[in-house]
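[agent] plan:
  1. take the single chain provided in the ticket
  2. run structure prediction with default settings
  3. attach structure tokens to the ticket
  4. add a short note for the reviewer (M.T.)
[agent] executing step 1
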Amino acid sequence: QVQLVESGGGSVQTGGSLRLSCAASGITFNAYIMGWYRQAPGGNQRELVATITTSGNTNYADAVKGRFTISRDNAKNTVYLQMNSLKPEDTAVYYCNANRPGYYGMNYWGKGTLVTVSS
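[agent] step 2 finished; step 3 output follows
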């Protein structure tokens, strides 16, 4: 059974930092592209925040470039999102995603963790 369990969310003030973690089980972790997505309160779409490939290449949404850093520890089956200089518009539920390229249906989501940034 595949499980992606996010942790590290919470409430911070503008300019603060948080580090999200996503622990994966039930998958061959190093075969998956890992990503973080977010959905703002009242929003109906998840947007890409950052992804990291199996070889460690990263990609970021323009809104978070220079402030957020995604990383992975294949030995711990965990992906991280370090979030610095947080802004109120970063407030959202953050979801972990695991996607195995070329394998239909091997795309999994965590249940999310809430990040609230107050001004």
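[agent] step 4 note for reviewer: The first strand starts at residue 3 and ends at 7.
[agent] ticket updated
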